[in-house]
Write a structure and sequence with these properties.
The complex is a heterodimer. By secondary structure, chain A is mainly α. Chain A is about 45% helix and about 0% strand. By secondary structure, chain B is of the alpha+beta class. The longest helix of chain B is centred in the N-terminal third of the chain and has 18 residues. Strand 1 of chain A pairs antiparallel with strand 6 of chain B, so a sheet runs across the interface.
C-alpha cells in the first residue's frame, strides 16, 4: 500500500531478470518472440503458484524456481507423469494383482 | 518399526540417482532401482541394471511414453532377468520391437512382485525389514519443489490421481519450522510448541541436481499425494540354504 503511486516500472523488468537467470541456469532458449512471451507468462504464473504453495504448506518444504518453471501444469504432467494418454491418470482397481488368490 | 530408516546410509544398496531426460520412463527407472537395492540387501552385491532393456522389451509399446511398475516387473520375469546398465546402457529413447535382452548376460532377476497393503505403518515396517519399495504418487507439487518436507493436502495434491513412480528408500522425523507455524497462527498469544514432522524419503529420476540431491521428502501419516495407492515391490529371494539376512536398514 505505501508503495502505491510510486513508479511501477521496475516490476516487469525484475521478472524478466529472474527469467533470464532461469534461462541461463537451465539452458533454455525459445524459437521466437511469441514463444518467449508465452514462456515468460507461464514462468510468472508458476512463481505465483510456488509462492502460494509456500504460504499454504505446513511442512518444511520450499517451493520456487525449478527446471520446470517454464512449463504449464498440463505440459509438466504429460512430460513427467506416467500416463500413457494425455489427461488419463493411473486409475485401476487396487484389487487387481492383490493377494486374492485365484483372481486374474 | 524403527523410528528412522535410511537405506542410502548402507553401502552398495542404493544406486546413483538417474535422469530420465525427455523419456517418460520413471516407471522403468524406479523398478530398476527397486531390484538393484533388493539385490544389494539380499546378496551384498552392488548391481546397476539396464533401464533400456525395460524400455525396449516392454510388452506395451513405446516405453518412453509412460508405463506401469508392474509392466517392468513382468518384462524382467519374461526376459529371465536384467542385463547390466554397462552392457545395455540407457539412451533415453525406446526402440520398440528391438529388444536386445538375449544378447547380454543377466546380472539380476526376481522371483515375483507384490502389492503391499495401503497402510503407512505397514509400508514402513516392510521398508525397514525388507528394503526399498516403489510407490506411485501425484506429481503435481514436484514441479515447484526445491527442498524440505512437503505436507500436502487432498486439495493441492489429489491422492486419487497418481501419475509418477518413485523409489521409497527411508523415513524419519524432523523439527517443524517455528516461523512457518507462527505465521499461520498470528492470533495465538504464545508461540506453538515445536513438534516433529514425520516424513518419507523418496528417490526421484530427474537427476542429482533436482530437489535434495535427486531425492525429496513427503509427509508420512497423511497419505500425502496418494503415496499408499500403489506400493509395489519385486521379491528377490535367497536360495533356502542361505536364508540369513545380513543387512538391516541404518537408522
Amino acid at each position: 500500500g505505501s508503495r502505491r503511486g510510486q513508479d511501477p516500472g521496475p516490476q516487469p523488468l525484475k521478472l524478466k531478470e529472474v527469467f533470464t537467470l532461469f534461462q541461463i541456469r537451465y539452458n533454455r532458449s525459445y524459437s521466437n518472440p511469441a514463444e518467449y512471451a508465452r514462456r515468460l507468462d507461464i514462468f510468472a504464473r508458476n512463481l505465483a503458484e510456488a509462492q502460494r504453495l509456500q504460504e499454504e504448506d505446513l511442512g518444511t518444504a520450499e517451493f520456487g524456481v525449478t527446471p520446470f518453471s517454464d512449463l504449464t501444469e498440463e505440459e509438466f504432467g504429460q512430460l513427467y507423469g506416467l500416463q500413457r494418454a494425455a489427461g488419463r491418470a493411473l486409475n485401476v482397481d487396487r484389487k487387481v494383482g492383490s493377494d486374492e488368490r485365484g483372481q486374474t | 518399526v524403527p523410528p528412522t530408516c535410511d537405506w542410502r546410509k548402507a553401502a552398495g544398496i542404493i544406486s546413483p540417482v538417474k535422469d530420465q531426460k525427455n523419456c517418460n520412463c520413471c516407471w522403468a527407472i524406479t523398478a530398476a532401482g527397486n531390484i538393484e537395492s533388493l539385490w544389494g540387501i539380499t546378496f551384498q552385491k552392488s548391481v546397476e541394471v539396464s533401464v533400456q532393456q525395460l524400455l525396449d522389451c516392454n510388452r506395451c509399446g513405446d516405453g518412453c511414453k509412460g508405463g506401469y511398475i508392474w509392466d517392468a516387473f513382468i518384462t524382467v520375469l519374461n526376459d529371465s532377468g536384467l542385463a547390466s546398465e554397462k552392457d545395455y546402457p540407457f539412451r533415453a529413447t525406446s526402440r520398440t520391437h528391438n529388444c536386445q535382452a538375449k544378447k547380454y548376460k543377466k546380472v539380476a532377476w526376481i522371483q515375483d512382485f507384490i502389492m503391499l497393503p495401503d497402510c503407512e505403518q505397514g509400508i514402513a515396517r516392510y521398508l525397514a525389514t525388507e528394503g526399498p519399495i516403489t510407490v506411485t504418487i501425484n506429481v503435481k507439487l514436484l514441479q515447484h519443489y526445491q527442498k524440505g518436507v512437503i505436507k500436502a493436502t487432498p486439495t493441492n495434491c489429489d491422492p486419487q490421481h497418481v501419475d509418477h513412480s518413485v523409489l521409497l528408500v527411508g523415513f524419519g522425523k524432523c523439527k517443524s519450522v517455528e516461523g512457518r507455524q507462527a505465521a499461520t497462527s498470528q492470533s495465538r498469544p504464545h508461540p506453538r510448541p515445536r513438534h516433529s514432522i514425520p516424513y518419507w524419503i523418496l528417490k526421484n529420476s530427474w537427476g542429482a541436481s533436482w530437489g535434495e540431491e535427486g531425492y525429496f521428502r513427503l509427509h508420512r501419516g497423511s497419505n500425502a499425494c496418494g503415496i499408499t495407492k500403489f506400493p509395489v515391490t519385486a521379491r528377490v529371494v535367497k536360495p533356502a540354504k542361505k536364508q540369513q539376512k545380513l543387512v538391516s536398514c541404518p537408522p
